[in-house]
Amino acid sequence: MALTSSALVVVLAIVVAALLMSVLWWWPGLAGKGARPVLLRIAALCTLQLSVLSLIFVAVNRSQEFYASWSDLLGTDSGGGAIVATNYGAGHGGPGHGGAGHGGAGHGGPGHYGSGSTGALVTVTGSSAVAAPGWRRAPRGRLQAVRIRGELSGLTVPAYIYLPAGYSRTNDSEQNLPVVVVISGQLSSRSAQAPYSAARLSAAVAGQMAAGRLRPLILVMLPARIGPGDQGCLDVPGGAQAATFFSQDLPRAVGSAYRVGAPPSRWGLLGDSSGGYCALQLAMTSSAAFSAAVLPPGSYTAPPGPAEPGGTPQLRAQENLTWLLQHQPMQPISVLFVGARRTGPFLTLARPPMRTAQAAPGSGQWPLSPVLDWIGRTLSRPSPAGS
Amino acid sequence: MGLTGRLFISLMIAVAVGSLAGIVWLWPRMAGRRLRDLASRLGLVAASQVLVIAAFLVCLNGYFVFYGSWSSLFGIGTPQPVQVARAAESSRPIVVTGSDLGPVPGGNSVLPVAANGALAGKPPHYYLKHHKVPQRRSPSGVGRRAGRAHTLAAVGEVLQVNLLGERTGIGVSSDYIYLPPQYFQRAYAHARFPVVLALTGYPNDPWSIVKRLALPATAARLVAAGRIRPAIYVMMNVSVAPPRDTECTNVPAGLQVESFFAYDVPQAVERTFRAQTGRSGWSVMGYSTGGYCAAKLAMMYPGQFSSAVSLAGYYLALKDQTTGNLYGGSQALRNENNLDWRLAHLPAPPVSVLVTSSRAGERDLPGTLAFLRLIHAPMRGYALLVRQGGHNYGTWDRELPQSLEWLNQRLTPARPHVQQVALGG
User: Fewer CB within a 10 Å sphere, N or C end of chain B?
Assistant: First the structure.
């Protein structure tokens, strides 16, 4: 009779019932004095108890399937199997019995995926020189138009990348450069009134660098919406995995193509009015990827745009950055709010290791210069012990 | 009094046996033929039965350690995200609460069990007496300190630790870390070791990985036999808030368990030990619920884990009484925690996953095969199917050596410093 069969349960149940009835019925017969009746009582009770325990064990085992058979229970099953590379994932050939050695250790150094990825993650589609405004002799940086392919999110996003003057991928003498990820709704704007356009941001960085106020850094500039249904760089359940793109795909893609520092200590975020929620949201939920953020002041209780369909109270709370600030542990991030007014709960509620600061936007032609200096300083700080 | 402590288990057995003795003693007083006598017999037998069953369950729990403590059984003192300052004030994310020497490769015994399932460090001479530890000559004689150092270099160490997640605020206790003997050897003094994160099933206590799955002992044996290279094994409870089954999920407006295992645990280990950083130095494995978590963590965080072993895992997003609402009431979010759904709807991640099951005796076999069929490049799937075996340690013990060898081929080994042979002296 199999260990997990219902027949065994039925038989044991009948045995238990019969034993119980017998003990109760023949009780008076064992009530005598002397060794023999006492021993018989003990035997009767123990048999009954053991049968009940067996019934319970078999019934529970049957429902949970801990032990599949008698040999399994007694530990007499032996032998393993061969490891089979199923090759559903290998992309070529039929199922093979490669054994444990098949596939081997196909990976590069830390932070690099194996040979599985196909093609470059960053494709350059255009490039132009960036002069430092007011410094005619200063060496020029470059502004590249690129497309960034996210391996895990599946999103491919058009972006701009600013490389400082003197940047060269093969130059190992310099440190790996910090990265500022810009999330802006006005990247492609040609207006001189648009400080967050790719051209103006690059020029502002070039100017600060030429003036010696900013150490070299790389700007990676992305639109405020990077995929269908994306609002505020969240992983939309069932939709665009924007948070995955920013926190995992982007560091990997940029790291594969440029000489950049390691996240999170060398990676920061800069958001304009349409990318501010995105920047703060990423800093607060992906502090393993970003250590600093610059954005306009606000309370950021919901992502921009209309409420997404299918939202639930829990999802809304998770997307409410003020709620996160009050209920999550403080994240090891530095946040600078750029605005004239001191508003929003973040300045008053943040506690170490989270740091907040507030600054009025600069005036004149390059209002973002002080902000860029701040984030450059923040990302150049020696990283905390051990990381 | 600990739930798995020897004292409590003995007490429960004593009470059960005592109740049986009581019945034998009182037997003649209820020997009448009246209904009242019959009822009191039945009542007494039933009461004693309950006590016997309780003792039986406590013994079973003591063996399998489903619940390691009263709090994990009843949820008293369930860990909550630690607020604000605590994460900052504790500069050490891992606190060692107990330590013991590691298993002896090929030895007669693994670690001694302390009464409460915890680790009880014993002085080195105990081990020198009870285990065959390779002796080394020391010019000054084997002192107490030197003895311990030598013993560590021969058998390694198992630590019992508390771990506090910096970013998620999740704090866990009574998890175990096995440092292999090589970790303490001079040739490896500057080497960084690969790490295998091993997760329990649910409900379960990580002590089971040490004792029942015998992961440190198996690893030590395979290393001694030259079949795998040494690694650090971090053995953790898959549930961070027992008795809740948290399924390694980032619960909306709740515990961020996924982030805890994907970011906090690796960071804490890398800051505390000479562990490798980066994906080629990290793998994750587990059995049952831990298997689901292992596959999920590797698939969602391939930047942290390059490979995963799922021993008798499942691949769907569980929702039952013990999990509660893990997905914020959102079916879409639940889908994203379903590994089959991910493979069908999202790009496949660049990781290797080994799944195990049994052709006979494992309920999750069809689900495992369905998961394997969905795997496509750049992800790689490997299967280890044994002929027969149920959902228990006996089966996983048989699958473990091959699984560790498979992992070994995917982890960057710790590189020993090549010593110059000192001549003379």
Answer: C
